[in-house]
Amino acid sequence: MYKYEIVIHWSNEDNCFIATVPELAGCMADGETQEEVLQNVNTVISEWLETARLLGRDIPEPKENSVYA
């Protein structure tokens, strides 16, 4: 489980849930249910981080959210 912020919303246009990870540019996934989109976005986060490491790119630190502190 990653500690990056994940934003999930319903897309009428795509007829599915969309998840985005604001700290990781271009990191997003979709799914038919909230559970599925969360599982999918966690997979995409792993792939995003792995690719960034392989390419020697900076990996942003997860931002702290005082709401959960």
What's this entry about, in short?
The chain has one helix at 34-55; strands at 7-11, 16-20, 28-31. The protein is α+β, with helices and mostly antiparallel strands. It has a three-stranded antiparallel beta sheet with strand order 1-2-3, with helices on one face.
Q: What features would you describe in this structure?
A:
This protein is an alpha+beta fold. The chain has one domain. It has one helix at 34-55; strands spanning 7-11, 16-20, 28-31. It has a three-stranded antiparallel β-sheet, with helices on one face. A hairpin with a 7-residue loop joins strand 2 (16-20) and strand 3. It is elongated, with a radius of gyration of 13 Å. The protein starts with 6 loop residues before the first strand and ends in a 14-residue tail after the last helix.
The percent range for helix content is: 25-40%
Strand tally, please? 3
- Nearest-angstrom radius of gyration? 13 Å
Based on secondary structure, the structural category is alpha+beta
Taking pLDDT < 50 over at least 5 consecutive residues as the criterion, the unreliable ranges are none
Mean pLDDT figure: 92
| Shape verdict | elongated
- Roughly how many Å apart are the termini? 18 Å
Arrangement of strands in the largest sheet: 1-2-3
Total domain modules: 1
Largest sheet: 3 strands, antiparallel
| Amount of beta strand | 15-25%
Number of helices: 1
* Secondary-structure element string: EEEH
List its traits:
69 residues; alpha+beta; 1 helix; three-stranded antiparallel sheet
Strand and helix map with partners:
Blueprint: E1 7-11, E2 16-20, E3 28-31, H1 34-55
